[in-house]
Amino acid sequence: MPSKVVLLAALLAVGLSAVWGVDYVNNWDGPVDFECPDAESIGYLYSIHSNTAEDRRWKIACRKPPSGAEVRKCEWTPNYVNQNDRTLLYMCPANYVISGVKSVHSNRDEDRRYKFKCCKDSNYVTTSCTRSDWLNNWDGALDFTVANGRVLTGWFSVHDNSKEDRRHKFITCQLKDQNS
């Protein structure tokens, strides 16, 4: 009987891993260059910190937005939206959702700069936006799933030079069909 329980647990773990795509999108000190497939937005973020590398590795996964929206009109921020060792506060333009992330690491500053890809469906609007609490402690793991019925629209983080790490909060909104 225990073997059936172990097998079930293993199958569930593999199934959940397949849903969220468990591979890291960057190596220590390496760039992040991640885009969701066409018409999808980021639905999951996971990150760990290394005190040796003084950096974070990221796992990112996408999903289709709620309500049948197809976010296909996209644009990248032309420049990095933060400076090393400075606060990052980025919101996609109104009615856009985050569908991609790029970042580069500086060994001198032991920090990252970020760019974002924002996409929208012209028939949908973002409403009822909220900001999460801190999702990680200094040097700790971050594990965030965008709640059902919501989309990721913004990213907030602060850097601490003594910890050489960032704490993160995310902004999510509901996505509603403006014709209904």
What does this structure look like?
This is Dermatopontin. It is found in: Secreted. Residues 1-21 form the signal peptide. With 180 residues, this protein is mainly β. It has one helix at residues 2-20; strands spanning 32-35, 41-50, 55-63, 73-76, 88-91, 97-106, 111-120, 124-131, 142-145, 150-160, 165-177. The strands form three sheets. Strands 1-6-7-4 form a four-stranded antiparallel β-sheet, with no helix packed on it. Strands 5-10-11-8 form a four-stranded antiparallel β-sheet, with no helix packed on it.
Provide a compact summary of the structure.
This protein is mainly β and 180 residues long. The chain has one helix and eleven strands. It has one domain (24-177).
Walk me through the topology:
Blueprint: H1 2-20, E1 32-35, E2 41-50, E3 55-63, E4 73-76, E5 88-91, E6 97-106, E7 111-120, E8 124-131, E9 142-145, E10 150-160, E11 165-177
Distance between the termini: 52 Å
Q: Enumerate the strands of the largest sheet in spatial order, edge to edge or round the barrel.
A: 1-6-7-4
Strand content: over 45%
Shape: elongated
Order of helices and strands: HEEEEEEEEEEE
Helix content: 10-25%
The major sheet is characterized as: 4 strands, antiparallel
The total tally of domains equals 1
Helix-strand makeup class: mainly beta
The average pLDDT score comes to: 91
Family: Belongs to the dermatopontin family.
Pfam family, one: DERM
Keywords: Disulfide bond, Secreted, Signal
InterPro entries: Dermatopontin
Which features does this protein show?
180 residues; mainly beta; 4-stranded antiparallel β-sheet; 1 helix; secreted; Dermatopontin; disulfide bond; signal
